[in-house]
Write a structure and sequence with these properties.
This protein starts with a helix and ends in a 5-residue tail after the last helix. It is of the alpha+beta class. Helix 2 crosses helix 7, helix 9 crosses helix 11 and helix 9 packs antiparallel against helix 12. The protein has twelve helices and twelve strands. The strands form two sheets. Strands 1-2-8-7-6-5 form a six-stranded mixed β-sheet, sandwiched between helices. A six-stranded mixed β-sheet has the order 3-4-9-10-11-12. Helices cover about 35% and strands about 25% of the residues.
């Protein structure tokens, strides 16, 4: 079976080799762990963001920059294609681990989750496990981790602290924005899972999403980056559905973000109206704007949802002069 941590370690080695070109900074902590700053204190950028996306996906997807039609603007976007969607997106990329050590908070993505089994039930559902001596991961945070954070991660991953390799970037950074848009495919799979769809029948996937500019602090950028998927993300899935076509059509209809009562305005505005309490925001908003599903059994393709560039224009706060 593919080792996501082995694959991810190759990406990390490239990031170490090209650190200066990527505008990143490499630090060795006292316990031997490696930390790569991709936007906390360093500039990072589009190339660093692409490496972060590759790392989160365990390098099991083809990633390329492209453009998105934002009204009359050609806007930067990222496209992703993979024939290992469950391992790449769910076993690795999904931000399924929140860490809290002292005053340090961060969302963990990437291969190390498979060693820590975060969350365990997901790995049981897709039948995946990993066994590798090095834990590689990405932390979305505006602070760099210290030795205590590394020791927490190492303990959960059953590795030595010196074998922990971490890349870090805040939401409010170009690199952070890129890696969030690259989650467009994973967001759709997660939504499928939440409505009771058997995600094990998903065989391949392709997605495109625009990349948000830095619009403010981390909370404001949390809104604009997620809006890229909610209002501009389009996904294509190839599945082998064991059921009636009508049943598949009903499931596909439920996936797009348009089904949420929170749909229709920038996410930051919704979050602000909820007094910045995530529990008051309906999770069903976190889904691609549009998806297309090709079923290999029925040989039919179903499409649902739409693209809404006008809301992205508002979310990005673009001023045309």
């Amino acid at each position: 079976m593919i080792s996501v941590n082995e694959m991810g370690s190759y990406v990390m080695e490239e990031m170490l080799d090209w650190s200066e070109d990527l505008n990143t900074e490499v630090t060795k902590l006292k316990n031997g762990a490696t930390v790569i700053d991709c936007g906390v204190k360093e500039d990072g950028g589009y190339e660093a963001g692409l490496y972060l996306a590759r790392l989160c996906l365990a390098d099991l997807a083809d990633l390329q920059y492209t453009t998105f039609d934002l009204k009359d603007l050609k806007w930067p976007a990222i496209q992703i294609a993979t024939d290992n969607p469950l391992i790449a997106c769910m076993a690795s990329q999904y931000a399924g681990w929140r860490i809290s050590v002292g005053d340090y908070l961060g969302k963990v993505s990437g291969p190390a989750r498979a060693l820590a089994l975060k969350p365990r039930e997901l790995y049981e559902e897709i039948g995946y496990e990993d066994d590798f001596q090095t834990a590689v991961l990405f932390i979305e945070s505006n602070k760099l981790p210290d030795e205590r954070v590394v020791e927490h991660i190492a303990k959960h991953c059953s590795v030595d602290p010196e074998n922990v390799m971490i890349a870090v970037a805040p939401t409010a950074s170009i690199a952070g924005s890129v890696q969030i848009s690259a989650r467009v495919l994973e967001t759709g799979i997660h939504k499928f899972k939440s409505i009771g769809f058997n995600i094990n029948c998903i065989k391949s996937g392709y997605g495109v999403a625009p990349i948000a500019p830095v619009v403010g602090n981390d909370v404001q950028c949390m809104g604009s980056t997620n809006d890229c998927v909610i209002y501009g993300g389009e996904t294509n899935y190839t599945v082998c559905f064991n059921g009636e076509l009508a049943e598949l059509e009903e499931l596909v209809k439920k996936v797009p973000s348009t089904n949420s009562h929170n749909f229709g305005k920038p996410l930051y505005q919704t979050f602000k109206e909820a007094d910045f309490d995530f529990l008051k925001v309906n999770e069903d908003i976190f889904a691609p704007a549009r998806l297309n599903v090709n079923d290999l059994n029925s040989k039919k393709t179903i499409s649902s949802g739409g693209i809404y560039p006008e809301i992205l224009f508002q979310s990005f706060g673009i001023k045309q002069i």
